[in-house]
DNA sequence: GTCTATATCGCGATAGAC
DNA sequence: GTCTATCGCGATATAGAC
């Protein structure tokens, strides 16, 4: 089994803190937050259980760090993609392609980010919710813009946005590197599906 | 707070076993399997912790029962919908409408069904996986049929099926009865989106 | 900063009276 | 079939040596 190295946490120092973060991401993704023991996390980082508490106050704080950095990364990826280029169709396709690719490539982190929210403490949760709103907002604006210019045909913009975001996020649940598709292929497929959902018609396909 | 009564488990007897099942569904959906204590489940059923073990061998067996019945119900709903009626477009719309509605209306059960699979024991997990294949199969056949008759235009049938199933399932993650849409409305919206994903063109909309 | 050892707690599951 | 009481374990987190 290969250990997925995730550059999302590449900048974390000291080294021990980063190793703990990576171990925690893997463990949380495999078993879930509550089923993961601090012994397990510390073990993956090559340390004793006690060493964890030098770098993080609690297990929950470790989860919060993962969740925060993960959300920031995925939103950043989305923002870069839409800024990139072109008309609404190009922007929507780029956004979905990038967002899906992130959820597939970083499915370990993404799983924690998307499915362990309930394990966060109250104030930590509140801070994460703020970040989450952005991704939906970005995609909604692209759809709105496309409808305004007549490139898209969408009756329920809010609902369709929700569906597109939902489609992208769920990739984290089912994606496996052993599966038959690469992150790039899924991104491409989903970009096309999102355009169809938006009522976009290219050359008459 | 109102207790969601879920007819999925209406037939379970004796009464105490059903109350435990319903308590477990709620607790698992709110906190997750591992964060739920047997004391919590028993409390919701109005019993002492020990009474749980008269009706179920372990906490995991309780999860398995929920997962099995839940999967059976959702697949049954899907099967009834596609049998119903019409051409491929009608069948796809009916299937998505019904599947989405089930995940919204029974979002508590659905959340456990879709997101607590990893907590199942090995043989229990294997038995559930068999059930899960059916729902994908049903939707894939509808898409295939529609492509064969020329009503749909889909290049990657497997991938598009996966996306449609994924879209429906993710409803369980975000749906809230306090949200702005009813299960019926979401079902209707998603049925239309699925038709678009399938490349279906009605009257020139 | 990391270790070994351990305090303290609450879990899943069982025993035995009724 | 349900209760009260409890066993045995493993969890998070801390103390104190190095």
How would you concisely characterize the structure shown here?
Two copies of one chain form a homodimer. Chain A has helices spanning 15-31, 38-44, 52-55, 59-84, 88-105, 107-115, 122-148, 157-174, 183-197.
Description:
Two copies of one chain form a homodimer. Chain A has a domain at 59-197: Tetracycline Repressor, domain 2. The first copy, chain A, is built from nine helices and no strands. Chain A is mostly helical and 205 residues long. The first copy, chain A, starts with 14 loop residues before the first helix and ends in an 8-residue tail after the last helix. Chain A has helices at residues 15-31, 38-44, 52-55, 59-84, 88-105, 107-115, 122-148, 157-174, 183-197. The longest helix of chain A is centred in the middle third of the chain and has 27 residues, at 122-148. The structure holds a DNA duplex (18 and 18 nucleotides). Chains A, B: Keywords: DNA-binding. Chains A, B: Residues 14-74 form the HTH tetR-type domain. Chains A, B: This is TetR/AcrR family transcriptional regulator. Chains A, B: Residues 37-56 bind DNA. Chains A, B: It comes from Streptomyces axinellae.
Strand content of chain A: under 5%
- Rg of chain A, Å, rounded: 19 Å
E-strand count of chain A: 0
Multimerization state: homodimer
Chain pair with largest interface: A-B, 33 and 33 residues
Pfam family, one (chains A, B): TetR_C_24
Domain HTH tetR-type (chains A, B): 14-74
Keywords (chains A, B): DNA-binding
Organism (chains A, B): Streptomyces axinellae
């Amino acid at each position: 089994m290969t250990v997925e190295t995730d550059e999302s946490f590449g900048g974390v120092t000291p080294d021990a803190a980063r190793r703990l973060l990576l171990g925690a991401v893997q463990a949380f993704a495999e078993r879930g937050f509550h089923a993961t023991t601090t012994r397990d996390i510390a073990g993956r980082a090559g340390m004793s259980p006690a060493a964890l508490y030098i770098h993080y106050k609690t297990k929950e704080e470790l989860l919060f760090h993962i969740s925060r950095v993960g959300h920031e990364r995925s939103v950043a990826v989305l923002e870069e993609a839409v800024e990139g280029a072109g008309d609404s169709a190009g922007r929507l396709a780029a956004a979905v392609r990038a967002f899906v690719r992130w959820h597939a490539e970083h499915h370990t982190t993404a799983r924690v980010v998307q499915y362990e929210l309930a394990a966060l403490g109250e104030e930590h949760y509140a801070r994460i919710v703020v970040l989450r709103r952005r991704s939906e907002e970005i995609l909604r604006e692209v759809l709105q813009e496309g409808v305004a210019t007549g490139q898209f045909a969408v009756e329920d913009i809010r609902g369709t946005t929700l569906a597109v975001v939902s489609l992208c996020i769920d990739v984290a649940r089912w994606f496996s590197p052993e599966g038959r598709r690469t992150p790039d292929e899924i991104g491409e497929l989903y970009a096309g599906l999102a355009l169809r959902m938006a009522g976009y018609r290219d050359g008459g396909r």
